[in-house]
Specification:
Oligomer: heterodimer
Distance between the termini of chain B: 58 Å
Helix content of chain B: 40-55%
Helix content of chain A: 40-55%
Strand content of chain B: 5-15%
Strand order of the largest sheet of chain B: 4-7-10-1-11
Structural class of chain B: alpha/beta
Strand content of chain A: 5-15%
Largest sheet of chain B: 5 strands, parallel
Order of helices and strands of chain B: HHEHEHEEHEHEHEHEEEHEHHHHHH
Strand order of the largest sheet of chain A: 12-11-10-13-14-15
Largest interface: A-B, 82 and 64 residues
């Protein structure tokens, strides 16, 4: 254990601890914490710290919760038992004044995300019969999902994450250091209690506010909520420290916890970042402003400054430097990737999996318990209960209170079965290597855009996998959005070797994921078949072709509908693309001069 | 039976205190003056105050008259209720009282039952009576229906909403029930186009569309946060400070509602609108009708009795930018196309006369 990484790891842990403390001081104002961490001792330690500092009631929000449980609904069992309507109180109303912890939060259904987001916004939840109940709480969303281009949808729904003020990413720490740090906690529950009392009286200077907002603007952390959360975090931090006004330390902490993780671009002045070694730093930004070169930053973008421009800019720079320590992973590598992962479709793979329940047209009834998307089919229920009427003591033969009533038992309940038309996903696998001429890529892009423009009527989605060089990548995750497709496709590069096997593998993986989400995938491969890069990434025509054929056979085994479009300049019998199509069980289409509309027509003809 | 009383939870942010977003606020005002325009579709980033604006606007509108306990918001002034509303048709109906304009949220994941209404389970199971439990459409009558993330809504729900919004009536035929009730509301939808395209049929039904963006200027963002913070610290004082402007806006809307039928549409304006639509290749005639109605409402809001070309210029963007036939290979966004066409047809600079 060398000293330097340990100090960095401890700094990160202390920040996370501070986040727990800030949340305990102002849970409603900050909304909550989005904690990205794997299940393990570090995460457990953090949750325990948060509970200890909060000291108040805590409710657990299960990932499988549905809208009915959240908002409260007719409690059927109690109603049937007592013969008079009984309503269950919604979970959100029960959370009023408490802290809610949601493990596996990335698996919450869209039907549950909506009411929770609305409650976080308004501080109240609609109850039964049109009433409104207060529901002011802070939410800790424990997200175990893996980020990354291939796993679209395994992250917390954006509707929730943007309403949670503090974003924290925790990585596993060595157990020994963890025990050490846990033995020396920085905050105590008493300090938190005092801070809550002081919170309203913390003064916010105009310079502090401008510094925060300018920092957020330069890092591309947009959204009015971001600004508000940053302000509230800084205020809570000042209250915790017993200060009456926001200090530079508070600004830095707010920058690290609210602005940095939401950054979408690097600030203009890169030289300021390089002043410190690496990107780890402690919260001591008071030293940096005098070192910083004179603020010529005041002239770029919207450098509006208040009474003392030099001071405000220096404070803004301090905020940016602090925030830079917590930029999202990979921001330096691929800005477009970050934008993609942040604006991913809200219905994650797990959410869409449950989409079958309760959505779509009704077709018949099956026995079951209503609730959480399953709707009671009243007529079928009554029809099931009627034959047992006499035996159960109801009906005309009964006397007293039972007279004329129809006794219904839980076994009689029938729910509506729904059916939704399956949507199609067309996965394009495009050979972007140098061996296929450059205009093939343009044609493929054009074909994708045309398909998208037409797909609105059929509710189809289109995805694009590109393979070139040594690997394949998912250039366009399944989307129905023409705007997104155009944006992503315009910057797609070409050239390099032909890793055909990897391309087919990745396309198959995307198709499988779509299938799991309840959609029907179709695969279209646009290539000339001249594979020269094997799965391992090494060159060699023979292995590359073998790997490609094996990938094709694996695809055939999954029963995927497929089409191989041969883009070689001259079509010969026995072309490699034809062999690929045969191995894949796909249709083969020779297209020497592949043209966007012809490709589109061919794909349409597949169905 | 609607016991909504948001006043006890938290007073609403005043409409006039919303910073910037002039286009969005203007579109909401126009839609409130003349609901037949067909509502507003607000495209844009999250957290830009779309939902706040709708609620604040409804809060400043004059209260509507309805009988307490009536779930359909029946209008007592219309005599016999249009539907078998048990509260209003009773022998001794309760006295009409004033209540705020209803704003109903259509939540993400709403089911058809909640929207359209269904058999009243409780009464059926417990008392054995067949009764209709009104859904969100009934609650939104004479008010606003706000749909968040409209492009993610399921297809069959969209169909139901379209029918109800277009015809002004909700026809219920299910589970042994057969009835219809009026539901005239202003439909406001919000969405992020990056997450999916709306079908053109749905897009066309929305009267106006605006694109809402996060303010780029730091000074504007600072003002947004400063005002929001002041509101959170002391809501009553903040609302009191803005009450005068809110009242002025409410008075403008009321006056405009009365005036809008009288506003004259000179031939020059009609010709300009028609030429605009032809130049843009907008499908169908709804574009022209909406543009004309929006221009009339804009004129009425300023107290004028005739449309002038400025009104047409201002109404063109919101009324037409979502009705253009999309050419996927065309790089220019629809707003740019509308602006170009407006400059061509109406003349680029202010005060430039129409041609022909």
């Amino acid at each position: 254990m060398s000293p330097a990484p340990d100090a960095a790891a401890e700094a990160r842990w202390r920040d996370a601890e501070a986040a727990a403390a800030l949340l305990a001081v102002d849970p409603v104002g900050l909304g909550g914490v989005w904690l990205r961490a794997r299940v393990g001792p570090t995460r457990a330690l953090w949750v325990e710290t948060a509970r200890r500092l909060w000291g108040g009631p805590v409710r657990r929000l299960p990932a499988t919760i549905g809208a009915e449980r959240l908002l409260g609904a007719l409690d059927l069992a109690a109603t049937l038992r007592e013969g008079a309507p009984r309503f269950s109180r919604g979970f959100l109303a029960e959370c009023d004044g408490a802290l809610a912890i949601a493990p596996m939060a990335e698996r919450l259904e869209p039907g549950a995300v909506g009411p929770i987001a609305a409650a976080l916004d308004r501080g109240s939840a609609p109850g039964a019969e049109g009433s409104v109940a207060p529901a002011r709480f802070g939410l800790i969303a424990l997200d175990e999902g893996e980020a990354g281009a291939g796993e679209e949808g395994e992250r917390l729904a954006p509707a929730l994450s943007e309403r949670l003020g503090l974003w924290v990413a925790l990585s596993e720490c060595p157990v020994r250091s963890q025990a050490e740090w846990a033995a020396r906690p920085v905050w105590s529950a008493d300090q938190v209690r005092d801070a809550r009392a002081r919170l309203a009286s913390v003064a916010v200077s105009a310079e502090a506010l401008s510094a925060l907002i300018e920092g957020a603007a330069r890092l591309g952390a947009d959204g009015a909520r971001t600004d508000l959360f940053a302000l509230r975090a800084a205020r809570a931090s000042a209250a915790l420290g017993g200060r009456e006004a926001i200090s530079a330390e508070d600004l830095a902490l707010a920058g690290r916890l609210t602005i940095g993780p939401r950054a979408t671009r690097l600030p203009e002045q890169e030289d300021r970042l390089e002043q410190e070694d690496g990107s780890e730093e402690e919260a001591a930004p008071e030293e940096t402003p005098p070192d910083a070169p004179p603020p010529d930053a005041s002239s770029d973008d919207a450098g509006q400054a208040e009474t003392e421009p030099h001071e405000v800019d220096a404070m803004a720079d301090a905020v940016i430097e602090a925030a830079a320590a917590r930029l999202p992973e990979g921001l330096l590598q691929g800005l477009s990737e970050i934008a993609r992962s942040r604006s991913s479709a809200p219905a994650g793979a797990s959410g869409a999996r449950r989409a079958g329940r309760g959505r779509g047209r009704a077709v018949g009834a099956v026995p079951g318990r209503p609730g959480d998307g399953a709707r009671l089919d009243l007529l079928a229920t009554l029809r099931a209960a009627v034959p047992w009427r006499m035996l159960r003591g109801g009906g005309a033969a009964a006397s007293g209170a039972g007279r004329g009533r129809l006794p219904v038992r839980m076994d009689d309940l029938r729910i509506v079965r729904t059916e939704q038309k399956a949507e199609t996903v067309i996965v394009f696998a495009v050979d972007a290597s140098g061996s296929t001429a450059l205009n093939r890529l343009g044609e493929a892009k054009g074909a994708v855009e045309l398909l998208l423009a037409e797909s609105y009527a059929r509710r189809d989605q289109v995805a694009l996998v590109c393979f070139r060089g040594a690997r394949a990548e998912l250039a366009l995750p399944p989307t129905r959005s023409l705007t997104r497709a155009k944006r992503l496709l315009s910057g797609l590069p070409g050239g390099g070797g032909t890793p055909l096997a990897s391309g087919v593998d990745l396309a198959r993986a995307v198709a499988e994921q779509a299938r799991r989400a309840g959609r029907t995938p179709t695969l279209v491969v646009l290539t000339d078949g001249q594979a020269n890069v094997a799965r391992s990434g090494l060159g060699g025509r023979v292995e590359a072709m073998e790997d490609a054929l094996s990938a094709a056979r694996a695809t055939a085994a999954t029963g995927l509908k497929a089409l191989v479009i041969d883009a070689s300049p001259r079509i010969r019998p026995g072309a490699p693309a034809e062999a690929l199509a045969a191995a894949m069980g796909a249709r083969y289409l020779p297209l020497p001069r592949a043209e966007a509309r012809a490709v589109t027509a061919a794909v349409r003809a597949l169905d | 039976m609607d016991k909504t009383s948001t006043a006890t939870i938290k007073p609403l942010y005043p409409f006039s205190a919303i910073v910037g977003q002039a286009e969005m606020k203007a579109a909401f005002l126009i839609a409130a003056v003349d609901p037949s325009i067909g509502g507003v579709l607000a495209f844009g980033d999250r957290g830009t105050g779309k939902s706040t604006a709708v609620r604040s606007l409804a809060a400043l509108l004059p209260p509507i008259e309805s009988r307490p306990g009536c779930p359909y918001n029946c209008d007592p002034a219309r005599g016999a209720p249009d539907v078998a509303c048990s509260a209003c048709a009773a022998g001794n109906p309760p006295e009409p009282a004033l209540r705020p304009t209803p704003v109903v949220d259509l939540p993400l994941g709403a089911t058809e039952d909640r929207v359209v209404g269904a058999l009243d389970l409780e009464r059926a199971l417990v008392k054995g009576e067949k009764a209709f439990q009104p859904g969100l459409l009934a609650r939104a009558h004479r008010g606003f229906l706000y749909i968040d993330e409209v492009n993610l809504l399921e297809d069959h729900l969209i169909d139901v909403l379209l029918d109800a919004a277009a015809s002004g009536e909700n026809v219920v035929e299910r589970e042994g029930l057969s009835l219809r009730h009026p539901c005239r509301f202003v439909l406001v939808g919000s969405g992020n186009p990056e997450e999916g395209e709306l079908r053109p049929q749905l897009l066309d039904r929305f009267g106006l569309s605006v694109t809402v963006r996060t303010p780029a200027a730091v000074a504007e963002r600072i003002e947004v946060v400063r005002r929001r913070d002041a509101f959170e610290r002391d809501p009553e004082a903040f609302c009191a400070a803005w009450a005068e402007e809110d009242a002025a806006t409410a008075a403008r809307i009321v006056a405009a509602r009365a005036l809008v039928r009288e506003v004259a549409t000179p031939d020059a304006a009609l010709e300009a609108i028609a030429r605009l639509c032809v130049a843009l290749g907008a499908d169908g005639l709804r574009g022209e009708l909406t543009c004309m109605r929006a221009a009339r409402a804009a004129a009425a809001l300023e107290g004028r009795v005739a449309i002038d070309l400025e009104d047409v210029r201002r109404a063109a963007g919101p009324a037409l930018s979502h009705r253009l036939r999309r050419d996927p290979l065309d790089e220019a966004g629809s707003e740019a196309r509308v602006a170009r066409a407006v400059a061509e047809v109406l003349g680029g600079a202010e005060g430039a006369p129409t041609r022909g």
